[in-house]
Amino acid sequence: MSLKFFEKLSQNFIELLHDKDDYNVIIQVENKEKSFTAHSNVLKFRSSYFSKELENIQPNENNIKIITKSNISAQIFDFILKYIYGGTVNLENVETRFIFDLMLAANEFELTELFKDLETILIEDKASWLKTRFSFVYHTVFDKENFKNLEKFCNDIVVKYPNLIFDGSDFTSLSESALVSLLKRDDLQMKEIKIWDYVIKWGVAQNTTLPTNLKEWTKDNFLTLKTTLKQCLPLIRYFHFSVDEVLNSIKPYKKIIDKQLWEDINQHLVTPKRPVKSIILPARSVLVTELPPRINEPNIISEDHAAEISSWIDRKTTTYSITNIPYKFELVLRGTKDGLAPQTFWNICHGHARTVVVAKVKGTDEIIGGYNPLAWDNTYNGEVNDWMKTKDSFIFSLKNGKSQINK
């Protein structure tokens, strides 16, 4: 039989943290504006980071070792210390951004147990927050070695909705490794020619001295771009471009493409069945799912409407056929079943992104609606600074087989 008194032990260690008579370490945080006292033995045994740091720091005249972590806020470090001493973290009434920052700090201090649990909480319970701040999250965690689950969460979203990253204002600041990981994905949901354009855009942005006018580029300019994109260029699916795409978008940059590859591209356009020497990567797979079978109860929109709305989402000039709709429309809320109260809408739709809302005008055959690519967030506090922006939303009207769209 084993008796365990961890709660009392935790409480006693928290009390030790506040003991100002026997400390031998001072940690300065928040640009040295706040200091915490601690005990070297506790820090060393609880954190490999502190174990290494304390090993390399000489004590001062008072036999105190001083560690400076200017990038960590006082509030975050207070939580870190309480975890180190007491093994507890109280996340009640804290903002999701605080949990995210705490996770980053836990990783920095090599507190594996804590940062993995916080990572899980964010993915499982705070997914809507991650999605609405996707670009920030993606850029923050991608190159950090330990956040593999969060990295996978982000990559699974990007391949389905690549515009979240590629159309972002900070796209060109994306790390090379992050861009390469996306280009390797066979399921990246974007036209290959758009991928090419974005890769060129990224490469040019890494070399600010390149002339803005392509006609002014020298041989060295093209060599510079080719060198910058050496990890990216082999991942482009060159043999799935149309003639117009090659002439309009690829040919102007043919000097960054190996001579043999350029010859093979042109040969493939003329005689596609003739073997080439270059490696032909498979075309990226497009996720095409059929609409679920019609249910017996009345629907506001038909499959034809769904095809038309899908075409607007993808900015198509021609409408998808009902057998080739690239999206699966899943019912989230029905007014006749769930009610029409605003709070009901927020409660049910919270966390859902890429949603279509439709309503039928009573006494008419007119259908009105709108598309929101962002996730609905019922935690929004009304502050202007928390507004989300998008260029991909639109409203529409369907009547007597005719349609109208406004963005």
Automatic annotation (TrEMBL):
What sequence ranges are listed for the domain TLDc?
299-407
The UniProt entry, under Pfam families, shows: BACK, BTB, TLD
GO CC, alphabetical: cytoplasm
Q: What Gene3D superfamilies does this protein's entry cite?
A: 1.25.40.420, Potassium Channel Kv1.1, Chain A
In this chain the BTB domain maps to 23-93
Instruction: Name the chain's protein.
Output: BTB domain-containing protein
Which organism was this protein described from?
Answer: Diversispora epigaea
